[in-house]
Amino acid sequence: MKLTDKEKSRLKTRYGEWAIVTGASSGIGRELALQLAAAGFNLVIHSRQLEKLEEVEMQLKANADIQIKIVAADVSGPDGIDKIIQSAQRLNVGLLVVSAGYGTSGLFINSSLPAEINLLKVNCEALLALTHYYSQHFARQKRGGIILMSSMVAFQGVPYAANYAATKAYVQTFSEALAVELKPYGVDVLAAAPGPVDSGFAQRANMRMTTTLKPSQVGVPILRALGRKTTVLPGFLTKILVYSMRAVPRLGKIKIMAKVMAGFTDHQINREDERTSTI
Ligand SMILES: NC(=O)c1ccc[n+]([C@@H]2O[C@H](COP(=O)([O-])OP(=O)(O)OC[C@H]3O[C@@H](n4cnc5c(N)ncnc54)[C@H](OP(=O)(O)O)[C@@H]3O)[C@@H](O)[C@H]2O)c1
User: What is the pLDDT of residues 189-244, one digit of tens each?
Assistant: First the structure.
């Protein structure tokens, strides 16, 4: 999927000339960086792994004549966000994309508390800090765009991914409210809420997702929605999954998601059930 020339020009005019993309080494963040490079944005690309970012940089430069800055930083640590902000200090930044994030899965009672707190730090605290800085910056310059990665799991509780889904519910409601608050300042905020996407996500979350979208099927719909909507359900699969549950009461949705997530994680849930049944 590619952006039209008209769409590239709209994005560049409204949100250029630099964009920051966190989580750009893989999956959805990498795809958004590729599409923004094709639209002529200069890019600050971020993740923890320098080598992976250098590979992405080579790919971006092979396809577009743009400037690129690399920031390797763990946003769960105390200096991660500062490093990103410092590296972009003198740049004319008009767009922030927060795609750095991950998931955990399994029975909550068997989870590690430090691991679940780390998830909160990356998916919520770091996103909050970066959004706080750039929403003030964009409001001062009276223009800007902010894309935050929510998920279809944000719309109800999800057994076997309870904390992950809760972090996405945070991102979703935070984005919806900010979109209204920042509109009068000329700043557009978008929550992107995809269904399952084939990326590095499933492996890190220890999930097995059967039917998935490709990152290339969600990147363009997300960018097209910026400035036009406050939430986007990118890709046909996402729309089907979310709309098919629209009329289901919230408790029913939670039960459906329990079945879906049990399927994504059954290898470990079975093991864990055996273990907990002996407690
Ligand atoms: N894939 C899905 O099914 C799906 C569905 C809905 C929403 N989402 C959301 O979309 C976002 C992107 O996920 P994805 O599917 O593109 O997964 P991905 O391929 O695993 O990409 C995640 C990115 O985040 C970076 N990252 C992870 N932890 C980090 C940390 N502590 N500090 C800095 N960077 C970190 C990773 O880079 P390094 O490993 O190099 O640090 C990578 O670039 C996430 O917020 C995810 O929750 C994903």
Answer: 999 999 999 999 999 999 999 899 999 999 999 999 999 999 999 999 999 999 99
Cα(48)–Cα(52) distance, integer angstroms? 9
62 C-alpha to center of ligand 1: Å?
A: 24
Tell me, what CATH number does 223's domain have?
Answer: 3.40.50.720
Please give the residue range of the domain that contains residue 188. 5-277
How much distance in Å is there from the Cα of 100 to the middle of ligand 1? Answer: 5
Burial degree of 257 (CB within 10 A; 0-12, 13-18, 19+) = buried
CB 145 within 8 A of CB 135: no
Would residue 164 show up in a list of annotated catalytic residues for this protein?
yes
Q: In which band, very low, low, confident or very high, does the pLDDT at 270 lie, cut at 50, 70 and 90? A: low
Which of ligand 1's atoms lies nearest the C-alpha of 100? 24
Specify the number of domains making up the chain: 1
**167 Cβ closer than 6 Å to some ligand 1 atom:** no
Q: Ligand 1: which of 197, 206, 217 to mutate, judged by most atoms within 8 Å of the beta carbon?
A: 197
CB 122, CB 81: distance < 8 Å: no
The protein residue with its alpha carbon nearest to ligand 1, atom 9, reads 149
pLDDT mean over 114-136: 98
